[in-house]
Amino acid sequence: MEVAIIKYNAGNTQSVIYALKRLGINPLLTNDFEAIQKADKVIFPGVGEASTTMKHLKELKLDLLIPTLKQPVLGICLGMQLMCEYSEEGDTTCMGVFQAPVKRFSPVNAEKVPHMGWNNITTVRDSWTASGIMDQHMYFVHSFYVPVTADTVATCNYIEDFSAALAKDNFYATQFHPEKSAGQGQQIIKNFIEL
After folding, report:
1. 94 catalytic, yes or no?
2. Are 39 and 1 in contact (CB under 8 A)?
3. Cα dist. 16→45, 69, 105, 181 in Å?
4. Which of 89, 94, 156, 177 is catalytic?
5. Which runs of consecutive H residues, i.e. helices, occur in 23-171?
6. Closest to 163 measured CA to CA, from 150, 181, 182, 177
7. What is the band of 125 on the pLDDT scale with cuts at 50, 70, 90?
8. Is residue 179 among the annotated active site residues?
């Protein structure tokens, strides 16, 4: 099993590498087109700011490669947001894998932005995430969110309902960090690897 982790300037790669090694997988951290295209699975992690990151992806032409991949691809956090159409963060045009915008949380009452910490998954549509995710707590760190759309397979609530996970064709994504979400997050990564 060849698993490629896309290497760029906003990846939370070390935690993802550790999570995969716990499953007996030694992933390849790379931005080489051929290596990414040949991999059985591709993970697109992300921590950072949308417009800066999209600029970097464009410089590497990874913004053109990622939407054309045919194997299962998992976007995590910013990786999920960049696979959407547009982000309010930096007025950024993204890759358009998922037909959804990315919006900034507007605080109400005492809620703080960013949404940071453990929160439970409240609604799950039958999909790759179904095993072990319903009513489980996952770890989130984000100020921007994807509204609930036709591609939403799991939701969470912070200020309002938002997409905790998306799926479309061979593309999968989580707003939460499965690699930092203990055993239940490890199960999500295992589900993806077993697709």
Report:
1. no
2. no
3. 8, 20, 26, 11
4. 177
5. 33-38, 50-60, 62-65, 78-82
6. 150
7. confident
8. yes
Annotated active-site residue 177? The verdict is yes
Q: Which of 134, 132, 137 is closest to 123 using CA atoms?
A: 134
Question: pTM of the entire structure?
Answer: 0.95
pLDDT in tens, 53-65: 999 999 999 999 9
Residue 110, number of CB atoms within 10 A of its CB: 5
Instruction: Report d(CA 20, CA 33) in Å as an integer.
Output: 21
Q: Which residues contact 5 (CB under 8 A, 6 or more apart)?
A: 11, 13, 16, 17, 20, 27, 28, 29, 30, 42, 43, 45
Measured CA to CA, the distance from residue 138 to residue 77 in angstroms comes to 12
Which residue type sits at 6?
A: I
> Which of the residues 77, 84, 94, 156 is marked catalytic?
77
* Measured distance CA(10)–CA(110) in Å, rounded: 30
Cα–Cα distance between 131 and 124 in angstroms, integer? 10
Helix (H, G, I), strand (E, B) or coil at 28: strand
